[in-house]
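name: query_chain
kind: protein
chains: 1
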Amino acid sequence: MLLLLVRHGTTPLTGTRLTGRLPGVHLSEEGIRQAKGAAERLGGLPIKAVYASPLERCIETAEPIASRHGLEIRPLEAMAEVDYGEWAGRSFKQLNRLKGWSELHARPADFRFPGGESIREAQTRAVGATQLLLKAHPNQAIVVVSHADLIRLTMAAYLGMGIDLYQRVIVGVASVSAVVLGDRVPRVVRLSDTGSLEELAERLTPAAQPGGPRPAAGPAGAKPARPAGQRSARA
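structure:
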């Protein structure tokens, strides 16, 4: 399976606040343009399913991708943003003053957000979700629209990096990170890519031919499908 992890586009809070699971955070005009650009770059791939974190900014980023391929968006709770607990919505300026913020960056593997989940728990659920997707979509290319930290933690796991090193991975807005799963060992073929994906398209063309595998039902934990264009009612 070719897993294509797409970070959502820019929002009005990107770079200023730890957005987390706050409700009502939508893409900015620039974010909408970025989402359309990602859909264009992914347009040549034989994508068979589009999943997304149920948070609005991810659903909105997934819409043009799903529409381009005639697919429905499948919200997947397991790929929602890290639960930052009491820190959600706070500005980075405020967070920089906290002792816990320094502890997070020094020893993230052992860190738990106040009132939220730990970094290790977030990575475990993200990797677990991708393994369920592998079982549901063997020999297919699928898209999962998620968040920077979830993608960083997932890619760090498949790169064989310890959790304490995951912050070395940078994931840009509307970027594509890709990993091939199920072929003996995970093979990372893209990381935070915002350029052409034509090479991947050439490699995957045979999978798009008639008679290839049919899309499978989503994994456990995936919510009922929502047609592209319909926003999530919650964060």
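note: Residues 207-217, 223-235 have pLDDT under 50 and may be disordered.
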